[in-house]
């Protein structure tokens, strides 16, 4: 569809225009604030003139939040109590959100370029992202889904978080001291890389009580290997469950499975990892993917898989050097040696989540109105030969409502499941659900349901999948916002809502619009992170430590230009190069003061990036246009920021 050029001043008469005219007329008559909303404004008025004199809010009658979690509004001078680490979906990066305010504090680029920070432009970021032999980026798109943070002793240790790229099967790691991506790893032989989850301790070595692995699920089945020869041979299609070393970010091993993976969970004892499977049919088309009544949650016995690799029981796929173990169920029937076991769950389940008491995994039903609660000790009992049927590890299947997608927890025995089709969150009690499943018909596990706006997907409560789950705030990511915000054209923002879950009933506290389309997130108390706000010059091998060391060095056509920044000037303020040169420009910000970031841009050369205090970045580019090019500071740093510039003089 192409849009016809249109004079925006000429208004057509679409439905509703009559009402707008009426409202305008009403406002002109000075009765606007009552008539506009159709009722008296009931929300507590702000004291300033802006709110008192402005238009009434569209949802003027919304009840004020009064739960025990505290106020949502963070007045100037106060800080949010929690960090939210958010995945940005097909924007391809990650975000840091202040909770409870919902304010976006930072975008953390990883898979796609970002002109603010120079991600994808500087040599350092390109080395993390990966380049083709000609130096251009290997990928310029990304689709981030799942965000998880590193653990120690069952709670977040504030060191790292990870995020996946569904499109190109990459996993990125962020350092949480500087909030920057430091590694990206490509998973071999994987398409539709979806869920991730770090382990919470080692399955064998009790001294390793922190994250050393990240497990990764493959959603789309592809030929193994995918080299163009077995395009139609379904026997050759498969999916892999991948283990990445959390510290080196190398791929440790992969497990070939039946069906597919979707989301991933890990147990608190490190022994089990699991993925929900919606395509046991191994079908290519959705109608067929729904043909079975039950699919599965597939459990991996991590120690046995790693023992098999030590014993040399693995193969390779295509050119990949990664060891691949056979975790197809038909080859893992004997409980004593099996590396996997399948627990059957109803029709096309979605999220799998670990309860903070360490006892259960909960699969959300999606096409079944239920959640399935799986007792992890019983799964281990099956592996030990003490339980004859793995499905006996199912201890509850509460009916929660239509379209269950993801589940979170409050640390007080309750679970909260998003209902995509009902546009609700259902709070339910795990032990009551277990009692009911065991035959006690008198208990009702459903505690409360609340409307959210609209079609929720992801959900997470503060510290929910840690041993310190505290049940204070719960964020819900709504895929549709419809009428919640000012219209901004056909693309609606999405709606992150914050709920207070300190009481028996959930209370909807806050809406905030988000640019599409956020996915998964985790929320942790602010004192669990220890951000550094100034870099250390010594961490940068290329740093120019003094202004005296700046200037141009020439080696044939290869030219190195060393520049420093100290507000409000670069040193040097000009340099000469020639057409045909290959310039590597290294910029060190010698300013030590917190918040004193400088930018650096060169017209016509596609160069733009920032340097934070005591940071060094470099760019390499070919000189192909003669003339004078003013490089200048892009980040407002000083009263003389506009004067902060210099000349790149290019001789023909
Ligand atoms: S998974 S709703 Cu549910 Cu990637 Cu996002
Ligand atoms: Cu330096 Cu603006
Ligand atoms: Ca299915």
Automatic annotation (TrEMBL):
| UniProt-annotated location(s) | Periplasm
- Pfam family, any one: Cupredoxin_1
Name the segments for region: Disordered.
44-74
Give the Gene Ontology MF terms in alphabetical order.
calcium ion binding; copper ion binding; cytochrome-c oxidase activity; nitrous-oxide reductase activity
Which residue ranges does the record assign to the Cytochrome oxidase subunit II copper A binding domain?
Answer: 556-652
Keyword annotations of the record: Calcium, Copper, Metal-binding, Oxidoreductase, Periplasm, Signal
Under which pathway is this protein filed? Nitrogen metabolism; nitrate reduction (denitrification); dinitrogen from nitrate: step 4/4
Q: Which Enzyme Commission number(s) are on file for it?
A: 1.7.2.4
Single GO BP term? denitrification pathway
**What parts of the sequence cross the membrane?**
none
Report the GO terms under cellular component: membrane; periplasmic space
Q: Which top-rank group of organisms is this from?
A: Bacteria
Name the catalysed reactions. Answer: N2 + 2 Fe(III)-[cytochrome c] + H2O = nitrous oxide + 2 Fe(II)-[cytochrome c] + 2 H(+)
CDD domains given for it?
A: N2OR_C
The protein's predominant localisation is periplasm
List all Low complexity biased stretches. 45-66
Role played? Nitrous-oxide reductase is part of a bacterial respiratory system which is activated under anaerobic conditions in the presence of nitrate or nitrous oxide.
Into which family does the record put it? In the C-terminal section; belongs to the cytochrome c oxidase subunit 2 family. Belongs to the NosZ family.
The name under which this protein is listed is Nitrous-oxide reductase
Species annotation? Lautropia dentalis
